[in-house]
Amino acid sequence: SRSINLAVIPGDGIGPEVVAQGLKVLGAVLPQDVKLETKEFDFGAKRYHATGETLTDADTDALKRHDAILLGAIGDPSVPSGVLERGFLLKLRFLFDHHVNLRPSRLLPGVPTPLAGQPEIDFVVVREGTEGPYTGNGGTIRKGTPHEVATEVSVNTAFGVERVVRDAFARAQARPRKKLTLVHKNNVLAYAGHLWTDVFNRVAEEFPEVTTDYIHVDAATIYLVTDPARFDVIVTDNLFGDIITDLAAAVSGGIGVAASGNINPSREFPSMFEPVHGSAPDIAGQAKADPTATVLSVALLLRHLGYDAEAARIEDAVSADLAERGENSRTTDEIGDALAGRVAG
Ligand code: IPM
Ligand code: MN
């Protein structure tokens, strides 16, 4: 019989609230014969204050034994900025080689957007997840003096670029429009920009059905606002991807509905699914957080594990719920109950 062995990291702030709803919907959508086992990990600010520790070797060993990871959010104002982010989140992405950071954007009917009219938005950003300026390859000299020099080297390997570009081509090929846009800055970034462009053009030859396009990242921010319909699949580096996916979320319903997957396509290590939003400490504990982004992340998780029909049921439930949502404000729990009810029935 089938089983899912899930590691759960509720994390900080609203993380535990939204994760509880994600698990509720997961439990409701899975067929009877699928055995769901969950194990919770207490990563985040509390653990850090109690022990001074972030991720330990014992943690990573335990996490490795799971099929996937569901994460709420990590980050707290009581800890200096970056410590928890680097110590847990980025460390997991690097250790488990989550090189495909998948961030879909769909503007669903009935969902408000700051854009004029109701543009067609249905694209997915494939953000590289293990390289670029996120590797910590940098340093500083003459620290604290007026002559301090800080470097933050963007690391781009042919291997790393090719595997994520190839993944993006395959995703584009599988979609009706079959279009892939490379977003970079090759007019300025002479070395990395050219590596990305060369690899992109070379891999394109293997995917003759996919229409290709290149846009500089600054121009891409304009098109995401003025003509988001032009995008189908976007592939880009880690930092550009970080920035444009916040913009993509803002135009397609906001971070309340933006889901993401940190994926290791080889399945050598568990992939990790999380809402794009952070821990939002300002609204934590007030039952105000929208769990939809986490629920949609559960759909990405299910699709990654091969439960396509269940993933689609969750996405349909979210579409239906959003279409009827209107102005009325519901609690985190009420939204979770509504979605769980829809996927079950
Ligand atoms: C994200 C976040 C992280 C990132 C931070 C919290 C390290 O902004 O998942 O997009 O920059 O990747
Ligand atoms: Mn981000």
UniProtKB/TrEMBL annotation:
Domain of life: Bacteria
Pathway: Amino-acid biosynthesis; L-leucine biosynthesis; L-leucine from 3-methyl-2-oxobutanoate: step 3/4
Gene Ontology molecular function: 3-isopropylmalate dehydrogenase activity
Skewed-composition ranges (Basic and acidic residues): 324-333
Residue runs in coiled coils: none
First-listed, main subcellular location of the protein, grouped into a coarse class: cytoplasm
Residues annotated as transmembrane: none
Region (Disordered): 324-345
Binding site for substrate: 93, 103, 127, 218
Binding-site list for Mg(2+): 218, 242, 246
HAMAP family per UniProt: LeuB_type2 (MF_01035)
NCBIfam families reported in the protein's UniProt record: PRK03437.1
Similarity section: Belongs to the isocitrate and isopropylmalate dehydrogenases family. LeuB type 2 subfamily.
UniProt protein name: 3-isopropylmalate dehydrogenase
Underlying gene: leuB
